[in-house]
Automatic annotation (TrEMBL):
Organism: Candidatus Kaiserbacteria bacterium RIFOXYB1_FULL_46_14
Protein name per its UniProtKB record: Rhodanese domain-containing protein
Residue ranges constituting the Rhodanese domain according to the UniProt record: 62-166
PROSITE patterns: RHODANESE_3 (PS50206)
Taxonomic classification: Bacteria, Candidatus Kaiseribacteriota
Domain of life, per lineage: Bacteria
A matching Pfam family: Rhodanese
InterPro entries the record matches: Rhodanese-like_dom, Rhodanese-like_dom_sf
Amino acid sequence: MFRDKWAGALLLGLILGALGFYVGQQFLKTSSTTEELIAEYYRVENAVHVSPHGLRGKMDKGDQSFILVDLRSAEEYEKEHIVGAVNIPAYKDKYTSAYGDIERIVGAFRELKVQYGDRDLIVYCYSTPCMTGRKVGEMLASHDVFVKHLNIGWYEWRHDWNSWNHEHEWNTTTFQDYVTSGKEPGAPKGGAIPNPCIEGDLGC
């Protein structure tokens, strides 16, 4: 009987040891160095975020490789929005979110993908720290719809123009040329302002 208990304990020890070894190996496989985490962070940042300078440059060139989507309420969109943006509201009004209306939001973005094919979908919401774009982006990704995120929000685009434009542009650019009102997206003037970004992969 003692021998049976000893054999059972030995078997249990072997099983636990093997399990511990397996878990340790999996941890080593999934753990990352600081350098790897930094590299991954910047890969994600560059894959997701869109520079307002770069976007403005595309507008000025008449570039049609993207669709800009305003996530604010329909009322706020009609009052003023970034020129060329369509509206898929994630808010019922400026005080009430509509995050629970998943079917409508996902369906509207899917329609854009069908209509515009390979164009990038770029979302923006109220301000830089606003979480609406991030929450909607996560919602869409869970339904295999993938969007990019404008690196500033409506507030900075409309009310803090100089904060993200170069100092030498302050007297040559104005938000009025890039903002419109009404239910329709409106069309950028195109070609009015020289592209502020350098060309190539390192351009803004």
